[in-house]
Amino acid sequence: MLLADRGIAADQLVVTAGLHLPSTAQELADRLNEFSGGRHRWVGGHLDVDPPLQQGQLGALCENGSWAVLLVPTKLREGHWVVVDDVSEDGTAAVRDPVGASYRMPVEELLHLMRYMVVVLEIGEVS
Predict the structure, then answer these.
(1) 120 has which bridge partners?
(2) What is the pLDDT along the chain (127 residues), one digit of tens a residue?
């Protein structure tokens, strides 16, 4: 999904083949870099901010286009990666789930479910 957003044709099943799911942020970023052909540089890891993250900080992550975040639903040990397209002033985020669902969710809910693990384009790259 992140690759397609940047005009890179790659089958999602091929991209994720061999990754333990949910993968770490760095594993996912490395895999995206393999398929980016040097056009983009992805980085993944833990956001270095003190919780709670603010809506404006989430919006800043959208500056280079869509990005991925690991969501872990309450009472579950493992989560899954979703793509965030934007964070609106109305307090919602546009989310695409790799299983096919697209929806808007309240930023408060996103902040509650995320574990501060993200994959984004490296600063200075263009989407």
Answers:
(1) 43
(2) 999 999 999 998 899 888 887 899 999 999 999 999 888 899 999 988 887 788 888 888 998 999 999 999 877 778 889 999 999 999 999 999 988 899 999 999 999 898 889 999 885 544 4
Beta-carbon count within 10 A of 55 CB: 17
CA distance 70 to 57: 16
User: Other C-beta atoms within 10 Å of 25: how many?
Assistant: 24
pTM recorded for the entire structure: 0.89
**Nearest by Cα to 4 from 95, 127, 124:** 127
Owning domain of residue 79:
4-121
Query: What's the rounded Cα separation, in Å, for the pair 20 and 5?
Result: 23
Domain count of the fold of the chain: 1
Q: Rounded CA gap, 9 and 83, in Å?
A: 17
